[in-house]
Amino acid sequence: MTTTTSNPPIVRPNEAAARSQRVADARSAFRQIKIVHPRQEAIIAGLDEVRRSGIATRGERQYGITLLAESGSGKTTAAEHFRDGIERLGELPEGSRPVLIVKLMSTGTARSLFSSILQALDDPFYDRGTEPNLHKRAVQAIKRDNVQLLVIDEVHHLSRRSSAATHVTDSLKTFLDSGLLPVAFFGTHDADKLFQSSRELNGRLFPPLTLPPLDWWADDDRDLFLDFVEDFDTAMVDKQIMKVASGLVEEDIARPLCLASSGIIGRTCRIVETAAINVVREGRHAVTRNDLAMAVNSWAIAHSFIDYNPFVEIEA
């Protein structure tokens, strides 16, 4: 079997506009699909333990936790699901932000960290002031908005600048040591060296959370992957992206899809989305195995996530 990619056929302007709108609507609908699998539920439970421990020991030294995993593993999705769930409980006064997710800027400096915290807490002047001033205001804003857990996302940016990293970790240690709140550090394994080199910070951490890729050849992982793609298939129909289910759970589709994505859920979603968008362009009703094979070529291989096409190799 050979797979090729081709440019969309030439169509009349009004047909092109309608097709473009179908694609835009489909892409918007994909953004609304939120599926939390059991491994992410374990992450959510771990975050809640840290949050509740912080509440129980408020004013005493706080502790942090790490979650370092491949990009696309579902770290941020899990954190957002946890945040939204805690906010829905309505246990705190209106306007409270019990779980605050802050994405660390690529500059990875202490000033940018405090600025990001203030921005996440809707401070209109988040980028104005000296570093000490921003630090003081960040602490005040955290207390004002009843933040119970701070999630620092993209923490691997710190590993690019060792001097800045030391300064930022020192600042975060003051958050913990002052009893302000616990901190969860999310990022890729590029941050491993950062934590390996900071024994003082490591001494303030609980055992790490983990979110490894799914291994098709491990029974539990395979079952989890099959459950996920079945739910994703159903969601595409529920969101009216596809007219009928595409049979993603069938082994001759699921197995190469898992291998093509390296068992990383985010990559799985991007491959299926790429295939589905082509189906939408052509006005068809469901994703086929060939659509997925072409999507691996045009997305996974094109972006260097993988250097072969499992759909082709397995069939051969």
TrEMBL record:
UniProt keyword terms in alphabetical order: ATP-binding, Nucleotide-binding
Organism of derivation: Sphingobium yanoikuyae
Database matches in InterPro entries: P-loop_NTPase, TniB
Signal sequence annotation: none
Key word Cell membrane present: no
Transmembrane segments: none
A Pfam family per the record: TniB
Protein known as: ATP-binding protein
Any one GO molecular function term: ATP binding
